[in-house]
Fold these 2 entries.
Entry 1:
Amino acid sequence: MSAQNTILFALLWPLLGAVGIALAGRWPNLRETVTLVTASVLALSVWSLAPGIMDGGRPGVVVAEVFGGLSIAFSVEPLGMLFAALASTLWIVNSVYSIGYMRGNNEKHQTRFYVCFAIAIAAALGVAFADNLLTLFLCYEILTLSTYPLVSHKGDAATIRSARIYLGILLGTSIGLLLPAIIWTYTVAGTLTFTPGGILEGNLAGPAVGLLLGLYVFGIGKAAVMPVHKWLPSAMVAPTPVSALLHAVAVVKAGVFTVTKVIIYIFGVEALFAEPSGGWLVYAAAFTIIAASVVALRQQNLKRMLAYSTIGQLSYVIMAAAVLTPLSEVGAAVHIVAHAFGKITLFFSAGAIYVASKKTELPQLHGIGRRMPWTMAAFTIAALSMIGVPPTGGFVSKWFILAGAFQTDNYLAIFTIILSTVLNAAYFLPVIFAAWFSTEPAGGKDHGEAPWPAVLALCVTAMATLAFFFFNQPVLELESQLVGRLK
Amino acid sequence: MSLTAQLPALQVVVPLLTAPLVVLLRTPGLSWAAATAASLTAFAIAVALAGQVLAGEVIHYEMGGWPAPFGISLNIDALGSLVLLLVTGASTLALVGGRDSLATEIEAGRRHLFYAAWLIVLAGLSGIAVTGDAFNVFVFMEISSLATYVLIAAGPDRRALTATFKYLIMGTIGATFYLIGVGMVYMMTGTLNFADMEVRLAEVTELRPIVVAAGFITVGLALKAAMFPLHVWLPGAYTHAPHMVTAFVAACSTKVAIYVLLRFDFFVFQNNLSQHDLHFASFLLPLALLGILVGSAVAMVESNLKRLLAHSSVAQIGYILLGASLISEAGITAAAAHMFNHALAKGAMFLAVAAFALRLSGVRLNDIAGVGRQMPLTFAALAVAGASLVGIPGTAGFVSKWLLLQAAFAQGTLGLVAVVVVVLSSLAAVVYVWRIIEAAYFCEPSAEVQAAREAPLPILAVLLLAAAANIYFGLVPAFPLSLAEMSATELLGGLQ
């Protein structure tokens, strides 16, 4: 298959899978087989694009000319390649986990769950491969809408209230801020195609650049920069596999990915660096990192704590991108991967704990390490990665972000990372300590590990977290193409 | 003369002559079939005419062979052809799908009269879009209005009578204003033909009667178009009319008035009154913006589905007028495209309401709670049309909203105000569309809703067709856009 066809295949295949899942809905085993086959084939086809991209190829395909020279078009560049590979690969693991979780919990509407999941993955790939902002916006909105049924899965009044916040913020910011930003860009630049070096240089200058950047950053609500982060804790009412893949990887990473892509390919790193009015973004990201960590420190619910941790970690990527040095841009890309492995493991663990014991609050987790050793071992590794302790993946990305910050002597960024590391340790370490060394409260339910597919999945992602510390060379090579060279 | 050359006349003649035939047929089934066939024929004619317009032909037809300006001439320009498509398309969809719905609302003994009135509305609205004669517009306007009052009042809901009365009074004022304006222009120029009027006005330009005439005509048509604050007749009329009448009328009747408004102001007055474009814009723009804000705000708190959509229409008419009042190629393209796209979205939504009404006792948000699970296809179509109304990408509504925002951005500072207003109103649209979706899908169904089944096939089929059109024209908008662009070029031709 040519690269062009592979791109189209990767976008359509999950949708076909969704149809297959819907048709097989009456036979759960067949349905799950369809999901797994779809996910595996998808990951293989996405990976098959990688060598070409490594060699510098940028395959692209135009699907339709819409109006006024705008088109629905897709193309693959290093950042999108990375995001697509990540989302599609973790979909396999997540599907294995979902089988354990959804069956272990006797959830209703499982067919709807798997169908919407497949559509969301297709939309995430669309975001990853979008060749221009119009295409990206289209896929971005499909991603929002297709995840709504997943968030409101439980269907009770409280869930619907949370899901309404989720949809309201994501749709509201995208229509209210992102769309005007895109149209403004089109009005001044005459194009929306992602172009290395940016398209705005010479077309827009002065405070307008800062304002446009603001419209983008807050319009892309999925990046969860404060104050548009509220949807993410709300989304935690979803079943855990949704929180794990969508609200630690696909959806939120679509947000920071879009911000990074806008900075690199719309504003242009060097052009934005030369424009002082864009400088506020580092402060906004730094504030989000610290504030989210402080809030996480005060949470009693495990999933909510993880959600606030995610908000902070997402702003690492934003800040890294906003530091605007070659090394930090690579750091942003690497952190997308490193955080994905770690956070999905943490959510998998939280879900496994829930399935096995129905426990959701932090004080309930005392001594749980002895009942669920595999789960908690994985949890520990992933938490260390969040803090950035070697030998975990989180260390690698922090290294690059710090190195990038030193390149321009950006002490704010350096200070933020150090402070946030301390805070991360402050909210993760007590949980880990209590899980392994405290005694279990009396009168609890007698339980062991969660169903084996769930445990298998979380062990795999924990291993990946470790492995990424040692085998990160391909990712670095791929992403160094983003900035031409590593200074 | 070949048949093709007669199409502009047939556009009006077919429904007009079928109307008495329908009265004679008497039985509900036969009269429905005849009316539907006439409407379908009219739609086919409109499509053929649109094809000719797109091919670049200038369609000019002289009634009875009398040359203009002595006889009545029919002219079909790009915008007229777009409006014809809306009028005939909405009528056809509503008739094809509406048989069951109308059977529950109109007594069997009076149904043939109802269909006859429907065809007269169709003939009148089409007539306005094809004619090149200002007085002829008035005649067709009265024909369609009187028949529309009959349609709206025909339902079982007695509140429709007061709503119709309100509409009748205001509609008559609007038509009278228009007639006064046309009379004054006739007094000064001695002609009623649009093209001739434009030429002759040059001799008497800037005289007070012409300025007054422009004022009367603009206000009269704005009333017919339900421009804020002259829209008060609209919510009641849309709410209490039989559901299918709402679907038909809401999709096209106000747009016909906007069409005449644009035609008069851009073709006839533009070159003959100094700074007319400035006056036109400064009159229309603030009212359009207010209409957008007020209509959206009210729609957010309405609980009757039809009333909610009616207030949303007030806001959407504001979008169209906003695009027109920017007086730029991009703005008018956006306005024309939005006429088309809004008709698609709103028509589909009212069709869905009609489908719900067939199965449920009411169409308040409480009444439709949970119906989405019982009527999944109807609900899906409603959701797609709602997305189009909000302007979600991939739907038709997105295309025109994009064009409108782009046109507003190009206007500089003032345009930014418009951008902010449109964005606020889009957010309001998210809220009110979401209230419908949430009520229909996520609320607990009542016993009545539990027993509801999917709507009958004809209405379901046209509903899904309308929803599919919302997506199709969102992804492949070339056809309405080229008509819209041609309209903009034609309308701005007078603006050197």
Entry 2:
Amino acid sequence: MEAGAKPKISGARLCCSCNQRRAALKRPKTLEQICRECFYEVFEEEIHQVIVENQLFKPGERIAIGASGGKDSTVLAYVLSELNRRHNYGLDLFLLSVDEGITGYRDDSLETVKRNELQYGLPLKIVSYKDLYGWTMDEIVKMIGLKNNCTFCGVFRRQALDRGAALLKVDKVATGHNADDIAETVLLNILRGDIARLGRCTSITTGEDGPIPRCKPFKYTYEKEIISTYAYFKKLDYFSTECIYSPNAYRGFAREFIKDLERIRPRAILDIIKSGENFRIATSTKMPEQGTCERCGYISSQKWCKACVLLEGLNRGLPKLGIGRSRGLNSDVKKDHLENVMELGELVFINFGQGLSIMAVIYERCGKGLLFEFGAHRITGEGSVTRGQHLPVRYLVFASASIPPMASSAPPDSAITGQNSRKSLGFLANAKKHKHSFIQFAAMTGILLLSIRSLGQKYRIHDLQEDTAALKQEQASLTERINYIKRGLRHEASLDPTGVFASRIRLLFGEDN
Amino acid sequence: MQLTLEFGGGLELLCQSVKIHNVNVDLPKGAEKLTMKDLLSWVSTNLIKERPEMFMKGESVRPGVLVLVNDCDWELSGQLDTTLEEKDVVVFISTLHGG
């Protein structure tokens, strides 16, 4: 800014569109300076263009607007009802809300949606997690903590929205995802290596082959424009509290990164979306097949849909089920894929049969199987490997040294507590982690060493006894020989006439004779 | 200098859930005018009670926080160099909270 300039004085910068009014906003998409009135016009017209060009709606359709009470869906509800009237789309619009059951967050934002219902005259339908799944998010968080709660919420919400839409008998669901959200999702799918989602996350309409397609009329609309000018200048009633359970969400990092990029170069957001659209997934890439869940009939690429797996975990008290790598119910872990499930540094239990079993740490992954480490030893042979809650699976165990002889001292299978450790840890770190098993392991080794030692001592005593007997025998024979020599010498001395030799012998042998 | 500050989009949570603050900000020593840069450091010392990283990043606001000076995007008035005058209204809105 040049010194002395007073930029905010009325008239200093005029709208580049009407050239009459004072500019109030710099559009991130075009860097144009524009006044409020012109902005509303351009903003609504652009969304109309997006709707027309992409044929998002057909006359007479019933459309549900996914309404959270937040800024995007509030603005979407306003803009769609406005455009529907202005351009005679001929749509029947509904508001559809999901009640996750988060006290202090969703209950408040639902109040906003209820006000929107009256303000825009759109009928509202609320579906709740409690009704659909029997659990509120409050209850889920109480059970699983704050680590993977967003996974539950996201999976359940997606399905809840579809079920609500089915109840409303709508033809399509429109969601308030904006350009920033889509750019974030593109990045997240790259970071997660999720090819299937990367391919479809930039489509403006998704699920066209499914029962109820979804569309994103705000695909090219910047969050900044939605919030600032619209929700603020038009004073739309929206709710803006952060979800009380979300601070741990992975998405937050991507979100912040996108905002940093936007500050440096606002077009970056549209460019990321463009990049996402232009990804060409190789036709040889194996994509998950879309089927239906055996349990609830929802679309799923697995036997059970994600929501059913998560729900089963909750109901069985195993909330980790379905989180992270596929394990447990849905994990079609084939035996020969076991190595992909086990992690380096994990403590496992190897059974070689015939009562021979040891506890070992996975040391290395090699071509044919896994290399295990047992103390300083490497083990070889074919054995079955047990870990945590898994069933034993036959496994090739490789390496150099032979199996230490400890057949009888191995603990029973049930004593294993080697759980899945997340990353490859050193032996010491693992020992710390699996303290219980490690103490058991150390005690076993101690007992083994003691018994080997006592066995050795027993053998030594036996040897010593034998040695003593032999020595005694030798001593006896030596005494006999000495006596014989003595006798011979005395006889020779008695033959000597001088008597000198005899006295000398008497002196040497003592007075005994 | 009398100013009206408004926090929205969740930022009000950082200043004890009060959205509108009527404040009196003194000019920095030796300065003739108050800039947005001065105001931001005043706000982060005097108004932000928790999680200052949600509001500031470096010496500017965190990317994703929108600033309006008298209902006008501060990107049009020079951002940190924007000069403020008596009875100006400054609005901060966060876009970082869910939509």
